[in-house]
Amino acid sequence: MKQIQAVHSEDFKSYDTEKIRERFLLDDLKATDKANFVYSHYDRMITGLITPVNSVVDLGNYDILRADYFLERRELGVINVGGAGTIVTDGTSYDLNKKDCLYLGKGVKDVKFSSKDGSNPAVFYALSAPAHTSYPTTFASHADVFSADLGAVETANQRTISRYIHKDGIQSCQLVMGLTSLATGSIWNTIPPHTHDRRMEVYFYFDVEADQRVIHFMGQPQQTRHIVMANHEAVLSPSWSIHSGAGTKNYSFIWGMAGENLDYADMDTFAVGELR
């Protein structure tokens, strides 16, 4: 499992394009028929992508966890962004269509991922954070979770935000997770810009067409940088960094956080005019 260490905000100011991509971009998650995971030292978040095409994929164990099994001291949130798939947890089967979510609590031992049709495979995006207690494995369909329409056509950020794992939804120790889909003609996400002093965040972009890109903005509000991202790539956002994006066409993304609380609204906002 690849590891990424934390970066100081002052050091970040001197980074060039290559170093920003090396330290924050997760672009090697696409290999099929295996679990592709990256271990981040930001709140010990693990980010991964599992695309079963020809075989069932097990949630394995890794030396870095120093555990008897992956979820011995962790929790896991999974959202499917591909074709229909199935997750089997300790013998119980859950079918996930596109944008459905499954939360797996601390103590789940045996986890298997598969696709209904290898020609249109499931693409399971997963986030895992340390957990101090056990919450029950919980399924949520995209149609049943809390959703809100925000933004406007005039500001090119008309979007629908769906919340899955949060203090008023699926219960967890510290994981918060949901997704945002932009309407046709809208390209801007996460307005107003903000940081989370008490949490880190990961963005995973999907439904980005092959010839399109998302320009993801990060850094301190007065010292912004950008990183160009393609489909099925993720980016780490430290607590000191904003996290906004503008695409060459509309797209969707999954947001996930870990840290001190489960309050979706715990953020420090900045006016667009403050950005530099």
Put the structure in a nutshell:
The strands form five sheets. The chain has a seven-stranded mixed sheet with strand order 1-3-4-11-6-9-12, with no helix packed on it. Strands 2-21-18-23-15-14-13 form a seven-stranded antiparallel sheet.
Compute the separation of the termini in Å.
36 Å
Count the beta strands: 24
Q: Find the structural class using helix and strand composition.
A: mainly beta
On the 0 to 100 scale, the average pLDDT is 96
Order of strands, main sheet, comes to 1-3-4-11-6-9-12
Q: Biggest sheet, open or closed, and with what strands and sense?
A: 7 strands, mixed
List low-pLDDT spans: none
Write down the Rg. 18 Å
Contiguous helical run count: 2
- Helix/strand order, N-terminal first: EHHEEEEEEEEEEEEEEEEEEEEEEE
Strand content: 35-45%
Protein name: 4-deoxy-L-threo-5-hexosulose-uronate ketol-isomerase
Cofactor: Zn(2+)
Function: Catalyzes the isomerization of 5-dehydro-4-deoxy-D-glucuronate to 3-deoxy-D-glycero-2,5-hexodiulosonate.
Keywords: Isomerase, Metal-binding, Zinc
